């Protein structure tokens, strides 16, 4: 808290070597606790961003906010038993103060603060209590979801922008759980898509007689939104699954696919068509699958030679009418080269690219390349617990479990497969009589290449 200081205290602060800030103490002292001599020097330095002085323990709600502000800003200390003139008066019952402080830190703050509390006695019999907090587990909040920061010798509530930085700097959970502070549920969530899904998975809970649509409540119960203060903010997963396409493209531009059809068997060949998809996951899935179907044939089982001949004749009559977006040099000759692939394997590979990709990197894009003889899936990927080869044996830890659980549910609308990498590899190998390349993980990218059959 800000206090007016006397001329004597100002003269004391300017005395060379008589005081230093708590920040200077932290920067130069590797271990705690504070000695009595050091504590006196810090008190003489007065309050700042890292030090709060109090005469006595009072007002639990205000004190809780001050502890949170220190922990969220950079750590610091609160000293009980020092008056406005920086004189040590002491506290009557330091043991009781210590007990109450621990109760506040453990019970009234989320996540709990684990402080160092030291009772310091002086030769005149006066005793003070020093509570020190650190910033390892920030951001902290009150039980009613209030976030505070310290500014100088006072505290204030954090803004959306400051909370966004705190979460991105210190977040240790899964990236999909990160709140999107630039997003608002009432503006950015597509309620038609969301409630279509909810009524599919839980038809009895939301009948026609239900009053209103408690979107915020249900998103929170699903773990796809978090309550901060008076607001409920969508998470990365919530926005990717149920956000409107326009807002997802604006807020999360890395939620995209770059799809390319080459006229040969590698990326050095001329480009027939290239498409940049953006939007929520359902749009990415539908758009990518539609693009793939434009250039390959998908089969539920390996076709006979007669079926292939009939399909080739059918395709040759429509090849010149594809009208791709970015293909000024396309010819019917290019489009006529088509491969045949197992439908289940292609869909599984596409789903894998969507739900298991690392959504954090800003400079790495998910890509699907279609060649004359293969379809290649590449997407950003984090460091796995096990080698990529472990996926062949069905050993995997989903990096985005909430995305996966909703996306692969039949009521979401993607009609995604759930066989996993082992089933995908087996199906692709049996269909084309050629083993896929991958999966491999290098340079923070996951790559899988499936070969077609003609």
Notes on the protein architecture:
The chain has a 6-stranded mixed β-sheet. The N and C termini lie far apart (76 Å). By secondary structure, the chain is α+β, with helices and mostly antiparallel strands. Strand 1 (51-54), helix 4 and strand 2 form a beta-alpha-beta unit. It has 17 helices and 18 strands. The protein folds into 3 domains: 7-158, Methyltransferase, Cobalt-precorrin-4 Transmethylase, Domain 2; 175-251, no CATH class; 256-451, 2-Layer Sandwich (Heat Shock Protein 90), CATH 3.30.565.60.
Largest sheet: 6 strands, mixed
Helix- and strand-based class?
A: alpha+beta
How many domains? Answer: 3
CATH architecture type of the largest domain: 2-Layer Sandwich
Using the coordinates above, name the CATH class of the largest domain: Alpha Beta
* Proportion of helical residues: 25-40%
Tally of alpha and pi helices: 17
Question: How would you state the average pLDDT, rounded?
Answer: 81
Poorly predicted residue ranges:
1-18, 318-334
- Overall geometry comes to elongated
Strand content: 15-25%
Strand order, sheet with most strands = 12-11-15-16-18-17
CATH third-level topology of the largest domain: Heat Shock Protein 90
Q: What is the rounded Rg?
A: 30 Å
Instruction: Count every beta strand, where a strand is a DSSP E run of 2 or more residues.
Output: 18
Amino-to-carboxy terminus distance: 76 Å
Quick overview:
The protein has 454 residues and is of the alpha+beta class.
